[in-house]
Design goal:
Number of domains: 1
Largest sheet: 4 strands, antiparallel
CATH topology: Alpha-Beta Plaits
CATH superfamily: ACT domain
Helix content: 25-40%
CATH architecture: 2-Layer Sandwich
Strand order of the largest sheet: 2-3-1-4
Distance between the termini: 48 Å
Shape: globular
Order of helices and strands: HEHEEHE
Strand content: 25-35%
CATH class: Alpha Beta
Number of helices: 3
């Protein structure tokens, strides 16, 4: 009896082909959270961890109807899927953040 076929892990080249995004590129990320004074500053600091050239002047803000929440669009320079995944994970795990799209 033969051994079952074991899946092979994706190489870096294979994982790059598995995404529809062409790197490098400007990539918008929408983040929603409670409207507090340091929310945008916190998101800016996180974005700069993953994109040292992040331009805070490119941030777009949208307040909720009641004014309790703030939608923030961060446009980062994405160089790989690994970078984006790590950024999404960091943003999603922050206590001020409710949703990351």
């Amino acid at each position: 009896m033969s051994d079952p076929i074991q899946p092979t892990p994706l190489s870096v080249a294979d994982s790059a082909r598995a995404t529809l995004i062409e790197f490098p590129c400007a990539f918008p990320i929408k983040v929603m959270g409670q409207k507090v004074d340091h929310f945008v500053h916190t998101l800016t600091a996180i974005a700069k961890e993953f994109d040292p050239q992040f331009d805070a002047s490119s941030i777009e803000l949208r307040q909720s109807k009641a004014g309790n929440y703030l939608g923030v669009t961060l446009t980062v320079w994405a160089t790989s899927q690994v970078q984006l995944d790590a950024l999404y994970t960091t943003l999603s795990s922050h206590p001020l953040v409710k949703v990351v799209l």
